[in-house]
Backbone:
């Protein structure tokens, strides 16, 4: 198994509507691994249909084989992307005004007929991850793969620089037992043989992540070799569960 360590640098603000509180739309500081997987491998490993029609057009099917654009394709190639851990991040709050859907429409102001909330209905505030925020993630692959230098992510298709480097084999050890994982994980992607003991829950769609977790099972221990100085941040050991794959053993199959 090959390991790639990736450092992600934001060159645009990133916005996801992770939480909606009145007119405030907040972005979680973690980057979800399913979103990163599409950003990194769409049109290379994940099919990118020209257009979607019918029921699948408005419904995501991340783990459904009937959906042409699903993540199970990466399982077949032995590729997995972990969620991204924020190393350095900041926020920027921007006010936006929503466009009218009809060809011609008049903005609804506070107190007007049709404005049934106690604030104007056509504007809001987006709490976005700011330019310069820095993230780290890991990609595992069965065979050597090409990782794009630039990707786009989020509602605004924001630009992110990807610095990837392959970790040497002597930096990775296969172990088994109880261990702590400081890297965020997607619990749905964990194998059935791995058990979560303790964790902090990161509530975000489509699947909540966990961080600062304590687990039991097989894992990889990644540490910096004495003679190797190419890593951005391998000053401390990182433990990641082995056997991870998209959907693990809960993937939906057509009936």
Residues:
């Amino acid at each position: 198994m090959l390991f790639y360590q990736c450092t992600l640098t934001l060159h645009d603000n990133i916005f996801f509507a992770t939480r909606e509180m009145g007119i405030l739309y907040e972005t979680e500081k973690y980057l979800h691994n399913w979103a990163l997987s599409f950003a990194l491998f769409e049109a290379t490993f994940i099919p990118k249909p020209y257009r979607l029609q019918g029921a699948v057009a408005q419904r995501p099917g991340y783990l459904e084989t009937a959906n042409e654009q699903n993540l199970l394709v990466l399982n077949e190639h032995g590729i997995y992307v972990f969620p991204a851990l924020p190393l350095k991040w900041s926020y920027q709050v921007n006010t936006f005004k929503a466009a009218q859907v009809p060809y011609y429409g008049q903005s609804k102001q506070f107190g007007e007929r049709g404005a049934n909330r106690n604030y104007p209905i056509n504007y809001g505030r987006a709490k976005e991850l700011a330019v310069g925020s820095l993230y780290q993630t890991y990609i595992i692959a069965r065979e050597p793969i090409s990782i794009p230098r630039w990707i786009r992510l989020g509602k605004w298709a924001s630009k992110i620089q990807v610095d990837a480097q392959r970790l040497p084999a002597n930096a990775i050890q296969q172990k088994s037992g109880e261990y702590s994982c400081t890297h965020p994980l997607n619990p749905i992607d964990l194998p059935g043989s791995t058990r979560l003991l303790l964790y902090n829950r990161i509530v975000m769609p489509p699947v909540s992540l966990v961080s600062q977790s304590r687990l039991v099972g097989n894992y990889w221990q990644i540490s910096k070799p004495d003679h190797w100085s190419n890593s951005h941040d391998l000053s401390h050991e990182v433990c990641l569960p082995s056997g991870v794959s998209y959907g693990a053993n809960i993937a939906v199959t057509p009936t």
User: Anything to note?
Assistant: Helices lie at 33-41, 72-76.
